[in-house]
């Protein structure tokens, strides 16, 4: 399973690297994060983008160690190394092909979709590509903002800094890319459906019910049951929530009952009730 996760991380980083070198960097379209910073600094100092990404990600790994812990930082190390290497290697490979796109809007659209898919694949494995994705995970952890939205905020800031180097039109194209990235990241991680069903097995039903109904503002159904093996009394709580509240409920469960067992599935349709 670990090998499969690493292979998926490599695949995600490869998609990002190809997107960066084909659709973004040649047209100065900044996808935010360290990739956007690399495009800005390359324009100013003519430094290889892969080197800037590697150095920036190394600095941010130290920040990750402080706020996200050793385990999360280890998961960021892999992407932080693989991503800049693949940027460098794919750039060498692509120079033998004519892949010019003469419509910057098209480049920004395809770049946003492909880069977002690549980042989403990496996130889904519990890893990051390093860089400002680390900051996005810190925001997600402490402020319960989805990774897509937190990434959008950070990348937007980086892009507006690009106004000091590039023209306004370039910034607009970059914002289009970043917006599409934020959508695709969440879609890859959480699925295409608007609602999620949580089946929660817990010994703290009252506390979880209070959290769901009062803090999240959603309903819940509590079913009394017992463990098939242990015969211990348990409660099953069924909650259907919008996908946007997925992280809030998940973090709340961890805070209230760290030993709660839960299953999450997509809800194709929700109807009835109030």
What does this structure look like?
The protein has helices at residues 2-24, 33-45, 49-67, 69-94, 104-124, 133-143, 147-161, 168-190, 205-215, 246-256, and strands at 195-202, 221-226, 233-242, 261-267. It is of the alpha+beta class and 274 residues long. The model has no long low-confidence stretch (mean pLDDT 89). The chain is built from 10 helices and 4 strands; from the N terminus they run ααααααααβαββαβ. Helix 3 runs antiparallel to helix 4, helix 5 (104-124) packs parallel to helix 8 (168-190) and helix 7 (147-161) runs antiparallel to helix 8 (168-190). The chain has 2 domains: 2-190, no CATH class; 195-267, Alpha-Beta Plaits (2-Layer Sandwich), CATH 3.30.70.120. A 4-stranded antiparallel β-sheet has the order 2-3-1-4, with helices on one face.
Structural class: alpha+beta
The count of DSSP E runs of length 2 or more, i.e. the number of strands, is: 4
Q: What is the 3D shape?
A: elongated
Written as H for each helix and E for each strand, in order along the chain, the element string is HHHHHHHHEHEEHE
- Poorly predicted ranges: none
Spatial strand arrangement across the major sheet = 2-3-1-4
Beta content comes to 5-15%
- Oligomeric state of this protein: single chain
| Computed CA radius of gyration, to the nearest angstrom | 21 Å
Query: What integer is the average pLDDT?
Result: 89
- The DSSP helix count reads 10
Taken together, the total number of domains comes to 2
Helical amount: 55-70%
């Amino acid at each position: 399973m670990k090998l499969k996760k690493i292979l998926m991380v490599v695949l995600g980083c490869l998609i990002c690297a190809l997107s960066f070198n084909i659709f973004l960097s040649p047209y100065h379209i900044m996808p935010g994060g360290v990739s956007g910073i690399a495009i800005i600094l390359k324009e100013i100092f003519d430094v290889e983008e892969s080197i800037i990404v590697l150095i920036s990600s190394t600095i941010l790994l130290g920040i990750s160690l402080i706020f996200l812990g050793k385990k999360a930082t280890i998961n960021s190390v892999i992407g932080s190394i693989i991503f800049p290497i693949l940027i460098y290697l794919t750039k060498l490979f692509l120079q033998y092909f004519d892949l010019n796109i003469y419509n910057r809007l098209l480049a920004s659209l395809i770049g946003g979709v492909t880069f977002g898919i690549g980042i989403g694949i990496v996130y889904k494995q519990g890893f990051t590509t390093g860089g400002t994705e680390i900051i996005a995970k810190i925001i997600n952890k402490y402020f319960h903002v989805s990774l897509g939205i937190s990434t959008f905020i950070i990348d937007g800031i980086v892009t507006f800094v690009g106004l000091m180097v590039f023209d306004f039109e370039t910034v607009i194209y970059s914002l289009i890319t970043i917006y599409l990235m934020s959508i695709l990241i969440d879609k890859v991680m959480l699925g295409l459906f608007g609602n999620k069903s949580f089946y929660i097995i817990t010994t703290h039903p009252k506390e979880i019910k209070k959290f769901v109904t009062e803090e999240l503002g959603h309903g819940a159904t509590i079913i009394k049951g017992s463990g098939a093996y242990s015969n211990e009394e348990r409660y099953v709580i069924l909650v259907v929530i919008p996908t946007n509240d997925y992280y809030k409920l998940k973090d709340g469960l961890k805070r209230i009952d760290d030993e709660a067992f839960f299953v999450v599935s997509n809800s194709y349709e929700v109807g009835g009730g109030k």
